[in-house]
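Researcher: Please translate sequence to structure tokens.
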Amino acid sequence: MIDIHHHLLWGLDDGATSLDTTLAMARLAAEDGITHVVCSPHANGKYSYDPATVAAKIAELEQELARERINLKLGRGCDFHLSYDNIEQAKADPSRFSINGLGYLLVEIPDFGLPPGLTEVFYELQLAGLTPILTHPERNPTLQVDQGRMVEWLKGGVLVQVTAGSVAGQMGRQAERMAHELLAKRWVHFLATDAHNTTSRAPKMRAAQEAVAGKYGPDYARLICVSNPLAAFMGKPLEPQPEPFGLYDDMEPKRWWQRLFSR
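Model: Translation complete:
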């Protein structure tokens, strides 16, 4: 499995607090069957994001992983918050925040509410050559109430990442409910851990992967846990995706009686 959203690097944000914690998280991830991790610290008003610093931390960690014989391939990414400065920098340099500098961008919306003009921001990022990946929408109370807000984004090419812990029921009942509704509609393109530590936000995907395989089929589980994340890691196009349910219902031609009563 490939984890594209993981706060593995120590001392950069609210993720790992020490190198020892980082190594413990890496060990847990490898034991769970994760082979690749995108190190994705926050870029927001509280935590600045410097690609050179992140790359240096990754290089140091790779040496430590080799020393500890932890078999994990690392990549660079960012938990991208929609500040004005971030958006302008991303448009000017699409490689700055994207996964391995290759175009796929993890976009985190606020914990509550939705920022105005979000559809236009996604479009602007796409014009700059980026592919936005909306992270853990199942945890946003506004979207929990109104999933329809996502329809236009999905139609426009925005991809969706759901947290493995939500699927496994570890992020609250509403997040679990919405995660499974999105999976059932095939609106999910990635599962990821969004790991922050070894306990409450642990780097584990296996239980969620098995739950998806059992409820929605092994092919879909492999797609969102291996194939799609690997494509994002390598900056490649996604393979053909399952037809999403309910996304294009409003585009179906109405029958004569539907047209009559809609007047």
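Researcher: Any highlights?
Model: The two ends are 51 Å apart (CA to CA).
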